[in-house]
Amino acid sequence: ESDTASEISFQFNKHKKTPSIGSHSSDMASVSSVSGSVLSVYSGDFGSVDAQGTVEFALDYDEKNREFQVHVSQCKDLAVVDEKKGRSDPYVKTYLLPDKARMGKRKTSVKKRTVNPIYNEVLRYKIEKMVLLIQKLNLSVWHNDPLGRNSFLGEIEVDLASWDWSNKKLNWYPLKPRSLSAVNGVDHRGVMNLSIKYVPPGSLGKVCPKNPPSGEVHIWVKDVKDLLQLRPSGVDSFVKCYVLPDTSKKSYQKTRVIKRDPNPVFNHTIVYDGFHTEDLKDACVELTVWDHEKLTNHFLGGIRLGLGTGLSYGISVDWMDSTQEEVAFWQEMMSAANEWIEGLLPLRSL
């Protein structure tokens, strides 16, 4: 299975590799990578440039080939990113929302040293018309930086359900600042019902002298309600779990797939061992919900349980971004050892 999302990781050697105990466990003493996890629409945005200018494009749906086509013509009067050199190197990127993952992304070539780039390129999506009509097109313009520090220049969002499909002409549209809904992930993606419990070191019974005592985190995924449905036949969903920063195979757990149900009941418990109490402030439990298909899985939403400090073992990480609700849930678990803490948390775009 390949998932329509990407992970960016780099190695650091704070901890040594040690074997994990049990098939449903991950040794937090073997932390080996830091993951960027699910990439959002605005990933890589390092700029603080005000959006300005316009973009010319046209939309069409090829019924014969079942293909959605975005004809990107040109842009005018874009913001200047490098003021000293008076230059921008713009390109256009498109996403189909709510799928903000990599398989939903298309982009044009980069035009160097211009605020009036001409593209005349067609970005294509193989997608059924009925599925297309329940999505939105996010078209954004970016400055391409050689070091990957790309800057956001403006965007437009199109509700494809209300689009006039008889309009196939090229039209000009003003570029707008990034939408608050997309930045803050306030779009409704469903709600996860779950319980978590921390079992501290020393409360698990006798331990071999060669194995220092360690704790466990138990995660009981009960059910999810009101999932997004990306196709008319419904949603075939499952839940993935990682304990970040560990993105190794032994950290990865998942539930079974529940077919054609926007309110799936999983009733699945995951246990991670190797936890020391001090790990709880640096670790983050990431639970993501996916729509299962034969060739690729589509990201529906997720939650991150942690302290939301932005740091893990002294390193700045973007995934340590828990909401107030998620932080409160994690803190309650930390302060109530050996007790199940139950919560109802909204899924977000991560």
Automatic annotation (TrEMBL):
Superkingdom in the source lineage: Eukaryota
Alphabetized GO MF terms: neurexin family protein binding
One CC-aspect GO term: exocytic vesicle
Predominant cellular place of this UniProt entry's protein: membrane
Keywords assigned: Cell membrane, Exocytosis, Membrane, Repeat
Occurrences of domain C2 (ranges): 51-173, 188-320
Localisation: Cell membrane
Biological processes per GO annotation: exocytosis
Protein's recorded name: Synaptotagmin-like protein 2
Source organism (scientific name): Bucorvus abyssinicus
